[in-house]
Amino acid sequence: MTTEPKRALVVRGGWEGHEPVVITDLFLPFLRDNGYEVEISDTLAVYEDAARLAATDLVVQCWTMGEITGEQRAGLAAAVRAGTGFAGWHGGIVDAFRGDIEYTLLTGGQFLMHPHGFSDHAVTLVKERADHPVISGLSDFRVHTEKYWMATDGDIDVLATTEFEPDERRPHAVTMPAVWTRTVEAGRVFVSTIGHKPDDFDVPEVRTLTERGLLWASR
Question: Residue 145: pLDDT above 80?
Fold first, then answer.
């Protein structure tokens, strides 16, 4: 008896500063090695194809900024609610389609700003979620990249955080969600805010939690 391969759809485009082709290409061998047939789309029109999405186990999106039509967003959201996984990192998932509230309610968060340039900073795993399959066995780590200030939904499962120190705007430190998962009816969503540049994924913990997040989100 043969098992049907899983299907992954990689949707990439938008602002080129996040190198959507280069970075998504990093994960194509991983997906194929884990039994996925991988399809790539450079257009959001794919979200209008209900049958195609229904046959997809995982959508990996790397599409920064840009605009999504109501029909496209509704098609994506309907597929996720029905069980298609949705996953991504950094601006490709949470700095996409600014102002579309329904899209933000799907991902569970929206990028608002980041301090200028790259900074060396810690990513702290949430101890109470240490047994979650995305971060199980990992330890806190450091990255040198953008640090995202997010507006997030209260209904997310936060797995890792970053800390914003007091500054001239805020007299107190702020702990910010950096990696989370959520469920949307029958579907799963994985978000990591780390991944502005390809070498962010050279950090073993970043690569591992991202790969695990893709598999966790998948149907």
Answer: yes
